[in-house]
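User: Before I run my own analysis I want an independent prediction to cross-check against. Here's the chain; please return only the C-alpha cells and, at the end, one sentence I can use as a sanity check.
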Amino acid sequence: MSYENELERKENLDRIVQSPSYRLAYRDIDFLSSSELRPVRMELELQKTELTLKRHNIHSTIVVFGSTQIVEPAEAQRRLDHARARLAETPSDGRRRRAVKRAERIAARSQYYDTAREFATLVSSSCQIEGKCDYVIITGGGPGIMEAANRGAHDVGAKSIGLNISLPQEQHPNPYITPELCFQFHYFAIRKLHFLLRAKALVVFPGGFGTLDELFDALTLRQTGRMQDVPIIIFGRRYWDHVLDFQFLADEGTIEDSDLDLIRYADTPEEAWKIIQDFHRE
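Assistant: C-alpha cells:
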C-alpha cells in the first residue's frame, strides 16, 4: 500500500471518530437538543425529579406561590429609600415618581415575606420529625415569597424543594433550598406537574403573572377533578379581591357557585395550617 493511501485512510478514520454520528447517543448534546428529541427531554425532566424525590423519601409537599418582588421588610425599605433619593435628584421625572409609588406598594406588602417564612417554619417543624418527609415545602426556587418559604424551612433545619426554570433573564436559586432538592427545568409543563404531583395544599401569596398562571392551573384541575383534593389557600384577600373577582364569575354563571368553595382565605400562618390539617382530617 502506498504512503499516500495509508495517510488518506488515517485521515478518514480521524473524521469518522470525530463525526457527530459516532458519538454515543446519550452523550450527543446536539442530538439531544434537536426539536425531534423534545419528547425525550420532557421525559428526562419528569424522571430526574421524580426519582430524586423518591430517593429522598419525599412523600408529600405543600406548594407556596407568590411574587418574586415581595422581599423582606428591611430590603423593601432600602429599595424605597433608594427610589425616593433618586426622585429627589429630579423631582419632575415621571418614571422616578412611578418607581417610588411601586416601591411604596412593595414595602406595604413586605409583611407577606415574614408571613410566608413563618408558615414554612410552622409546617416544617411539625411534619419533618424523626426522618419523616411529609408536607415538605416546595417553591419555584427563586427570590421573594419563594425565598421566604424555603428560608422558613431552613430556619428549623428542615428540607425544602426548589423548582427553578431557565428563562431569558436567568433565574438563580435562592440560597435556602436544600441543595440536593434544587432542580432546573426547561419546560413549564413538567415543572407544573411536579408542583402538584405530591401536593397536600397550595398556599398562594400576592403575585403577578406567574402566580396567576399557577393558581388558575390548580383551580382548573381541581374543578375538573383531574388532581387530588387539596385546599387552595390565599393570603391577602384585599389584594386578590382587586385582582380577581371570583364572585362575579359565579354571578355571571361562568363558574358554579360550588367552585367558590375551592378557595380558602387565611391571614396568619396558624390559620392556614389549621385549614390544611382540618381538610385532610376530614
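Sanity check: The radius of gyration is 24 Å.
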